[in-house]
Design goal:
The complex is a heterodimer.
Chain A lengths: L1 E4 L5 H9 L7 E8 L3 E2 L2 E2 L2 E6 L3 H16 L4 E7 L1 E3 L4 E9 L2 H18 L2 E7 L2 E4 L4 H8 L5
Helix pairs in contact in A: 2-3, 3-4
Chain B lengths: L6 E5 L1 H7 L3 E4 L8 H9 L3 H6 L7 E4 L2 E2 L11 E5 L6
Parallel strand pairs in B: 1-5
Antiparallel strand pairs in B: 1-2, 3-4, 3-5
The chains are: A alpha+beta, B alpha+beta.
Chain lengths: 150, 89
């Protein structure tokens, strides 16, 4: 399941809804990304997340489908926010539910690693010296590449 | 007869800001047959385009909302998105 929204989300409510009524699920893993108060060595007062409506949903759906191809999963959930956010705010949630923990843990890591290099979102950080676009990191590319076919 | 090769271009993040608009519909010249030659032509449209698209390594391209390489052919009616490497999550 994919959601792209301005609004915040409630982790407990989302995980309850994801697993409710399916007792073949033995475990659910989740990752929540938050806005940090520092970026590039500078304090941040806020952040605006821009995205490519239409392409975002398409890319997230492809990432979800790829997770289902690679692991035996009962449920996948990706929620990504856009718009104005403050330090401490939730940005993203990825979750994977499976009969067994290995698939759930691995799929969760895969979901966030691929999302970070493929989903068309951009962060504009507000600092004392003005707004700055966040630059992509090689470490994110490396993290995504570890899931390339061998 | 005039044949128009209309293409919808979408710009995001720092590229949108440098070009000064989020989208436009343009008729690229016949020699702009691929993503790479389209970007080359866009760079000639003004200093704002030249600045926004100066480093091809920092321009990601989506045609009809799928990532494509620079040698991908483009066709009339395509939606072409140009943006910097993504930084979500």
């Amino acid at each position: 399941m994919i959601r792209v929204q301005r609004e915040d989300f409630d982790l407990g409510a989302e995980l309850n809804a994801l697993t409710r009524g399916n007792a073949s699920i033995g475990g659910v893993t989740s990752f929540v990304g938050l806005v940090r108060d520092m970026g590039g060595g500078e304090p941040i007062s806020g952040m605006t997340l821009e995205h490519y409506p239409g392409m975002t949903e398409q890319q997230l759906a492809e990432i979800e489908a790829e997770a289902h191809r690679r692991w035996k999963l009962d449920q996948v959930l990706i929620i990504h926010r856009y718009g104005a956010l403050k330090p401490g705010d939730r940005i993203v949630l990825v979750a994977a539910a499976s009969a067994h923990r290995d698939a759930a843990f691995e799929a969760c890591r895969f979901l966030i690693d691929w999302l970070k290099t493929k989903a068309p979102f951009w962060k504009l950080e507000e600092t004392a010296t003005g707004p700055h676009w966040v630059e992509s990191k090689d470490s994110d590319e490396d993290a995504a590449r570890r899931w390339d076919p061998r | 007869m005039i044949r128009l090769n209309l293409m919808k271009l979408l710009y995001f993040a720092s590229i949108r800001q440098k070009i000064g608009k989020a989208e436009e519909t343009l008729a690229p010249p016949p020699e702009a047959t691929t993503v790479a030659t389209l970007i080359e032509w866009l760079r000639t449209r003004g200093p704002n385009y030249a600045e926004a698209l100066k480093n091809p390594k920092l321009v990601r391209v989506a045609v009809n909302r799928e990532y494509v390489p620079a040698d991908r052919r483009i066709a009339p009616g395509d939606e072409v998105g140009l943006f910097p490497p993504v930084t979500g999550g």
